[in-house]
């Protein structure tokens, strides 16, 4: 299936603007429509300001003025992002749409994502401490969306990867249902990528080594692209998430494809070890399916 409809969740931060540029690069190469989704939700900092005013027994007039200020900040953020989207549309000659929705991002973005082929979101594991729940936005998306996700790290966490998305792809393969699902979702990107590298960990690192057949997976991916190679991963004492990202970055990949190993009914606590490693140590964009 061709990639024709991409959704990107945006905000006015540097990371949010970078996500928009990366998604535009992807939309340009796939001749896909790009929809920028801006959720008009008070940030944690804005919520704290309002709460501080209320606890300080500020007058209703003062609270109303503060609310207007925050709404004005949201309007300014929306204007900044729409202007960037317009410039990307002109520079790349892509079909774009702007969508602004009131509500909670954790509710709005999964719902909107079900009407897109692929959704691009951001993730900073160090932000989780400020969240009201014990799970991140990316984890919420992972098990509630039902669509493939591209998760982009915050700029301060990103390694030296180019400002492109899906031009050079790394695939983490272990023969499981989750990795097969992720690969299937990534095939439209693989078909147009300049290079694709399939990484398979040594059998000693796998729960089901009998399912891993490098020749078979290379043959399958080779039906979709002529630019594919296989590389084994050597076992180490470090986290497998780091091992995968190190190997992907070494070959110049700008996207790592991996399956999310978890149990949807208990997803708050049951994320698989590798998925957890990747999300907590994220240094490059990940295409993840569950």
TrEMBL record:
Coiled coil: none annotated. It holds the Pfam family Usp. It comes from the Bacteria. Residues 231-288 form the UspA domain. Gene3D superfamilies: 3.40.50.12370. InterPro entries: Universal_stress_UspA (IPR006015), UspA (IPR006016). Belongs to the universal stress protein A family. This is Universal stress protein family protein.
